[in-house]
Amino acid sequence: MALFILRRLGVMVLTALCLTFIVFFLTNLGPNLEKLAKTQGNARMSDAQVESWLDRNGYGQPLVTRYGEWLGVVPGWTREDAETGEITGRCIDPGMDPAAAPRFCGLLQGDFGYSTVSDDEVAAVVGGRLALTGKLMFWAFLIMVPAALLVGVLAGMREGSRLDRSLSTFAIATTATPEYVSGVIFIVLLASSQAGLSPILAEWGWIDGGTLFLGSARSAMDNANFWNFTLPVMTIALYGMGYIARMTRASMAEVMTAQYIRTARLKGVSFRKIVLRHALRNALIAPFTVIMLQFPWLLTGVVIVETLFNYNGFGWTLVQAASNNDIELLLTCSIVAVLVVLVTQLISDIGYVFLNPRIRIS
Amino acid sequence: MDPITWTGNLGPILNPLMLAAAVVFALAFVTQLVLSFAGVQAGETVINPDRTLTVTRTPFDYALMALKYAVLLFLVCVLVYVFGGFVQPALEDKGIIGAIGQRFWPVWLSLAILFALSITFKRRLGLYGKLFDSPIGMIGFGIVMFWLFTAFFADVVATHGPIDVVSQMRNIVPGSWMPSPDEGEYPVYLLGGDSLGRDVFSRMVYGGREVLKIAPFATLFAFMVGITLGLPAGYVGGRIDTILSFLANLVLAFPVILLFYLLVTPEIVASGIPVYMAAVLFLFPIVFFVVLFNSRFHTQGGKRNILVAATIILGGWLYLSLLSDPGGFRLLPRGLDFVDMPGNILIVFVSVVFVNSPTVFRIVRGITLDVKTRDYVSAAQTRGEGPWYIMLWEILPNARGPLIVDFCLRIGYTTILLGTLGFFGLGVSPESPDWGSTINEGRRLLTVYPHPPLPPALALMSLVLGLNLLADGLREESLKD
What we know:
The complex is a heterodimer of chains A (about 350) and B (about 475).
Chain A: H1 2-27, H2 30-40, H3 47-56, H4 63-71, E1 78-80, E2 87-89, E3 114-115, E4 120-121, H5 122-157, H6 162-175, H7 179-190, H8 197-204, H9 226-256, H10 259-267, H11 271-283, H12 285-308, H13 314-323, H14 327-355
Antiparallel strand pairs in A: 1-2, 3-4
Chain B: H1 11-38, E1 45-47, E2 53-55, H2 59-84, H3 91-103, H4 105-120, H5 126-130, H6 135-152, H7 154-157, E3 176-177, E4 188-189, H8 200-235, H9 238-253, H10 256-264, H11 266-271, H12 273-281, H13 283-297, H14 301-323, H15 343-371, H16 375-383, H17 387-398, H18 400-423, H19 435-442, H20 454-479
Antiparallel strand pairs in B: 1-2, 3-4
Helix pairs in contact in B: 1-2, 2-3, 4-6, 6-8, 6-20, 8-9, 8-13, 8-15, 8-18, 8-20, 9-15, 10-15, 12-15, 13-14, 13-17, 15-18, 16-17, 18-19, 18-20, 19-20
């Protein structure tokens, strides 16, 4: 087991290195650097000026060296200005004594770099945003997982029944509705003062003015409540739910045909007891992996929902960083995203082994 | 003039009926739930001693019956609305629903012919015919074909051009009359106007064409790549498998959105990376077919040479023609360059193929691992067949069931991906009527003008739903064998 985890961790680190290098390569392509120079320096720079700006700011080195610097395995660049004699460098913050600056400053030293768009340390930017997204994800999971398991178990316990048919169709419908569609429909139905339910409810006097829910989650960043946070949470939960429900249903249906269920039934155990005592625990092994693997999927959903509802979390930051070519912020975002994917994969593998005694790792 | 109403002349008659149906449905549903919790069972069929049957009915059965008839009544009303437009002359009388129903006439006609033919000959049509035994599959197939025909007949169905702008019609409500329609022009914006004064209905119809132009082909390419790499990974295993699986997991670990942003931004496009990727990815179909024919016919020199030469010439010409851009980058002389893909579509296409192929690879690899243990594979090995023959002519045909099902699902997923690209304004041109971009444009003023983004949103949802139902029906029917 320890060897298995160790090997998985090794593969994980290798994957993360490859992925960050790809992101690093793509964000550091010539045209991107030129754009960066023009946004940071002067929009009307000539090619030679761009060249010298890049050179002055350490972008002139070979790509691999700069990647090493960013990782923290290669000493940060330093440069002495020929005219003023001022020493600048990757690890030398403005106003810092060059002699006191550390030699290495990269990921391994805990320095994530500087975000050019937010004008702040990346670590400070990403930390807060991640907390916001964590809040969104937490509530989405809290709604999604129990609802999906309930739907799946109810549908799977009597395969082919009317309940099964209607719940399965519902599950298929939710997987067919991406976030940007369900979000739009929710906003029109529940959060528009012109259409949907809100005008009717307002007319009946059930809600005083305004709308049933708020179509923007900006205020939910500080103060999340039922009114401003329901729609984004629902939107995320709905898309992920169908898939988990279908997996649960398949697993439940399979368990219900097993020998021990038949034995229990022949013994005269009531149906309710069979489902709760005998079937449920075995049927929930497969959905566990699916739920874990749902995290990376949710990441895309989070980006869409945060953009749609104006919620400045991690997904929103990723879009901002990518559209403005904020290299170091984007790299950190991709590390976080990749870690989420890989860690959940690892947990799902290990958890599967623990939950299912029939699987042994040799 | 006042905008025309949704239901036109039929409204006063049919609306109360539909409302009644909805109320009955709700009541019957609640009753049925309460009864089932109270332990009332459905009636049973009893065989009497004199060989007659007696069906007992309980309140539960009556509730179910009410449920069924309410749904039927509702559906009939909807049908009358949609097709009522054909018999009424004036637009005011047809109502918006009737008018839209009439605009879709070539689609209805094609659907009717297709279904009539398919159901008549369903016993001779293999898996496709069996689809018509499953109601779910039939509904899914119907929805998919509806959009396919709509895309095909878009010029007939749409009332206006996708980028025709009438500035007075900005954000106008559905059913509004145009201020001064030209001779022969459709005088009404059936689903209203968007923020620039373009017809929402026509944009939705043309958007379907944009989506269906890319999604199925991108999925097909992803399958070619996935199959060409997945078969050897599963069959040969060893180092090839390790390397290819690592690469596939690498791509899968990338958040899709990040990948899109990295591939589709103008700066990256300027560096030419998407074109290089296209150059690699578009090679796979040619490789696939060359290997396919070569492995089968390598003992019959003449036939092999003809097929392989035809594949290489035709495929190579398409390949060079697709890659050469009319503007700058050019591999073929102008006279030979028939197939053109606009630069931005090429990039969208490539990124969607790139995102999809690792998943296909994993599926194909998994199936191959399973199928290669079968007896017919060992038989082929004993006969001394080459590995590619076994992979492509023994394993692949026997893996077709799950692959066809996944193909349908994956087209739906690709449609969602394309919508995501449009939603973030990536890749496609800003005027493009594709559904994702239209939703993106409409969402800014969503709470004030809800009508522009809703039709494309519902259209996208229905297409993906149709594909999912179709896949479900296919899976069910293929499992019955």
